[in-house]
Amino acid sequence: MESIIKASGLCKSFILGKTSNNVLKNINLDIYESDFTVIMGSSGSGKSTLLYSISTMDNPSAGRVELLGRDITNIGEKEATSIRNKDISFVFQSINLLYDLTIRENITYCGYLNNRDKKGVNKKTDELLNRLDLKDIENKYPSEISGGQQQRVAIARALINNPKIIFGDEPTGALNSSTGARVLDILTELNEEGQSIVMVTHDLKAASRASRLIYLKDGRIDGDLSLGRYNEKDSDSREKKIFEFIKSGGW
To answer: Among 12, 49, 51, 94, which residue is least crowded by beta carbons within 10 Å?
Structure first.
């Protein structure tokens, strides 16, 4: 499989007053095309910091990061924005929709920013609205729909420019179990179609969707578990396997 993200000697430190807080410590990691990679770890282990450092959201303090064959280690904001617009997308726990735009406008707006073919963007929007069961609410505003519907809109918005990688930071963290499961179903379906996904989560049910699980402890990779492709009938055994993996590591 082709490596789409490669981190070598990755370190990230934050200066708080006179104290340096070393969050990531010499991480070496390859993430592969078409995988559903999940990053887990206890609070403060560096999960989100790692996600941001390998996705143009933040620059590392040391080491090297390649994203889709491109060195992004010390990337400037203009170049980073270009990569985010064309090659990657994000789904966060805080959904951050534009509340003065309708559901449809939230999706098309992101498409228009990067594509002058408005007819093509509109067609893609229709496809996403239908696929994610949003067509009936396309003219409503974010304040008029549920949190689960809002997160599905966020996924549609993330997909409008056909990203090579979707990064997720606790995308089901603010949702109840049933709506969270629906969002995970969508992400799983996309991965089955070849979409590369890298997701941070603390939830076993969400982690069970992974084909590969990376476990962080104190800013270092302390475990790497291959799970294979997700099958719903095996969900309980997958959760048990992850639990035993975490338990055996003393985490």
So the answer is: 94
Positive or negative, the Cα torsion across 151, 156, 161, 167? Answer: positive
Place of tokens 């990064």: 167
d(CA 92, CA 214): 19
The vertex-211 CA angle with 164 and 46, nearest 5°, equals 80
CA 222 from chain center: how many Å?
21
Residue 25 sits at φ, ψ, to 5 deg, of -130, 95
The residues pairing with 13 across neighbouring beta strands, listed in sequence order, are: 22
- Name the region of 65 (left: φ>0; alpha: ψ -120 to 50; beta: rest): beta
Count of CB atoms situated within 10 Å of the CB of 79: 12
3-state secondary structure (DSSP) of residue 185: helix
**Domains identified in the chain and CATH numbers:** 33-58+75-249 (3.40.50.300)
What are the residues facing 27 on neighbouring strands? 10
Note whether 212 and 248 are within 8 A (CB). no
Type of residue at 6: K
How far is residue 7 CA from its own chain's centroid? 17
Q: What is the pLDDT of residues 196-243, one digit of tens each?
A: 999 999 999 999 999 999 999 999 999 999 999 999 999 999 999 999
